[in-house]
Amino acid sequence: MTRPLRATARFISTSVLVGALAACGGADESLNDPTGSSSSGEGAGSGTSSGDVGGSGSGGGDSTPDDAVDFSFTPSNLAEVDVDAGGPDVELGTDCHETWIDTTSGQFACGLTVPFVTVDQGPGLPDITVFLVDSLHLHIGVDIAVKGSNALAIASKGDVLIEGRLFVRGFSRCGGDGVPGGFAGGSALSVQGDDGGGPGGGQGGLTRAGGGGANYGGHGGVGAESGDGAVGGEAGTSYGTDVLIPLLGGSGGGGGGDLDGKCGGSGGGAVLLASSTSGVVANSGGVNAGGRGGGWGGGGGSGGAILLEAPQVEVAGVVAANGGGGGGSHSCGCNGDWNGDPACGGDGAYADGGVGSSSVNADAGNGTVTTNHFACSGGGGGGAGRIRINTQSGSALLLGTVSPSPALGLTTEGTLEG
To answer: What is the pTM of this model?
Structure first.
């Protein structure tokens, strides 16, 4: 018997996502929560966990709402998960003080306890932490960041309304705190910087040469050679599938070849938002899986992966998976931004980093050669990630900003399975 569907099911993005920009610091500079929150909570454990919603008001609601509907399709990558088990109604409001989700521990935002399971995608691939809810509402004015090493999935038996901003990428520039479903940037070393993590990681530069930008769907930029002719890092190798099976995030940029330089930027994370009824990323909100910019001379991380699934999907706000900019001789590259513009390369005194990918260009720019033999050359920018939108009809209503643009072939559409 066919399960009933709601009359409308939309993914609408109502708020824009502003990439967090921060000054460069040490070789593994901590940029922590882009929302500015430093609070922490007790982890919910690993494996499979469940519980009732903690708190009240904007913290949670009725755990068995009348509008919860069993899934009429099987969310991608979650065939072994009982997504119809459901969970609480989750309201993430302005009184939330723990503005992050930890995919390693299973800690949910706002101190809420939400049931989750962990999916093993296989050797060499990140696990997926799947939170089970009956509905999800991220309110306008609320920023939620994701940390941990596992990719994030939220499966909702009811509406998903994203009016705030969801950041899915590494907490630190180098990825030392984990990249949710993605990979860390390479460290800076005096002889040769380390290669960036992941299948598309940029190559580290030799002494005072720039690190290569990371690839995913788009191509990273090349790190510039040093003033003495030492070889810069090459860009990574493109990988992944347009259906985002497996669910895999962006790769890290190569480290600069100088102890005074900094690491490559970590890649963007990977996220699946699936609703059996209505998914809304409204025009005041959005989802950003941008790569981080490289440190001084480091390559930019590639954009990550965003997978949206519901019977109908409408994007009125921003959904972006852009690459980060490469680091310059004395400044970091910018993080992959929300608006479709390329992330700026580091504007150094002697060398500039390459720009990251944009909505109209999946490939990133190259770093420039230093004009001072004692300063590092610029790192290459990070290439674009991938976006997939699956609906009942195979055609979403895209009213807002989707970057990379569907015209580039890295944002694709398909039909729901199962």
So the answer is: 0.87
